[in-house]
Design brief:
mainly alpha; 9 helices; elongated; 183 residues
Length: 183
């Protein structure tokens, strides 16, 4: 983006172009991070699980850049205007909620935090990444308003991943109940 900006290739509204590209990169990394566990479940591809944390942190990084571009560059640090925008424009509210939910995910993404809060709590907290995915897709759909092809692709990735995780959780509980009955 920086190179394209120096070459004058970001179009007439540079801020909107940067916002759109940063948001798009956020969704790409978010969809990739959410696809790791389902791909492991379905195809046995465990390499994704090893890079899932890094993908999640890239997601947060680009989401932070997206938000800061909006807050600092687009709105010139006008907190009142930003609050009004969040309250008046649903797509900004949904995007902001997704960003706020990502903050504890990023903070707790270290091994030390897993030990500190306990694996069960950490796992529950990090499952909210699917909520972030859903909110991100809604943010994108409400932002584009006309051509829904790309938001639908992201929606399918998040939705299928969530479905696979749900089915896997039900199967695991069923196996656990069978084991406890036989003991």
């Amino acid at each position: 983006m920086a190179w394209r900006a120096t070459q004058g290739q970001l179009g007439a509204d540079i801020v909107a172009s940067v916002l759109n590209q940063l948001g798009y990169l956020t969704l790409i990394f978010l969809a990739a991070s959410l696809a790791c566990s389902p791909l492991n479940t379905i195809a046995g591809w465990n390499w994704g699980v090893r890079i899932r944390r890094m993908l999640g942190l890239f997601t947060f990084f680009y989401a932070t850049l997206h938000f800061l571009t909006y807050f600092v560059v687009d709105q010139s640090l006008a907190l009142g205007t930003v609050v009004d925008d969040i309250l008046k424009r649903n797509f900004i509210l949904v995007g902001f909620l997704a960003f706020v939910i990502m903050i504890p995910l990023a903070i707790t993404s270290t091994n030390g935090m897993v030990r500190r809060i306990g694996f069960a709590r950490w796992k529950w907290l990090h499952r909210t990444a699917y909520l972030v995915g859903c909110l991100g897709v809604v943010h994108f759909i409400w932002r584009v308003k006309t051509d829904y092809r790309e938001p639908i692709i992201f929606g399918v990735i998040v939705g299928v991943g969530l479905l696979i995780r749900g089915v896997d959780a039900v199967r695991a509980r069923s196996k656990q109940k069978k084991r406890s009955r036989s003991q």
